[in-house]
Amino acid sequence: MSLSLIAKTIKASPTLALNEKAAILREKGDPVIHLGGGEPKSRAPMDAILSAVNMLNSGEVRYAPADGIPELKKSIIRYTEEFYHRKVNPENVIASSGAKQAIMVALQAILNPQEEVIFPAPYWVSYPDMARLVGAIPVPVLPEDGTFYPRLKDIEMRVGSYTKAIIINSPNNPTGAMYSEEFIADIVDFCERRGIYLIMDDIYHRLVFDGRKPISAYDYTKKSVEESKLLIVNGVSKQYAMTGFRIGWAVGNKKLIEAMANIQGHQTSGPSVLLQKAAVGALNGIQSSVESLRVTLENNRNVLVDQLRSFDGVKVHVPDGTFYLFADFSAYEKDSQKLSNYLIDKVMVLTVPGKEFGLDGHLRISYCGTIKDIEEGIERMKWALDPNSPNELYIGDRKLVRDWL
What we know:
alpha/beta, 14 strands, Aspartate Aminotransferase, domain 1, 3-stranded antiparallel beta sheet
């Protein structure tokens, strides 16, 4: 069979593949613990559900405008003013089928083949393949100081004549690192001076811990919205625990947003009007669910950090936000894919290999599930890896004997 060059270079999303594997194992009745997922376990806000129900009861579920319904745009405009301190107009807003689509159509609107998009590493798994889908070149940048916090000079060293855009994801998936105000100010200023598009992937921006506050890149721009090449991407998936609703958005200058809407109109048309109505309910409704989720995640993070710190050989960076921790397991196994497979096969714990995020020897561990899953999952991992652990382990009524070390 003959396939395109793009089709031959794009692989399946490793995180989605892991979700599928977890579902298959559970269907078989295996006591799998999924510490690799990116879905909060809390329910979607009741205001979102009721808004969708009212829409369904009307029986009028029709096509939506390619760039989003006016009601949702109005909610995004209010949200942008409240959390980003910037007044924008409907023409500055596009609603998409998830923040992922918003980023994808932005890259399609910005990049030509062989142009480059830069992003700090570790990075979200989809960035490199999204760049390849438009024929562009992904350029990951690992901080030179070995931390998870990039500095402007790390980025500057990789910028060249083909650099067209930079993506910043803070708080970061997979590390949970929240970049400093100084870095955000520096990267905004740098992109404005060099005429480079800056895409802020802010999907986790309110899920931050230890008294931190969300950072608005608009606070550091010297340009108006129309003059700026700054694009803010956000959505309801993470902070409102509405992953399956697939509603995200982007805010930027009118010319870019119009181009993105034209592309999206041919790709998928507008996002589902039903799900947009649910997003309106979430954005306009009672916001206590966001704080409740944030507090739960901060507590879960603390439990996971304590569990891992009792695990000899594991290096732990304490996340500033999100619901992921990126731990260094290289003392046990430098090949993270091999290690991840080992943990699935031996103790049925799912984690995501660090090599998928641009840094091998690490595992991404999610703490958006239950405390019970976190504690039992780490106990199983410790048993499988630590030679000083007891030789036997019970998973439910199933007895495991460690006879492979």
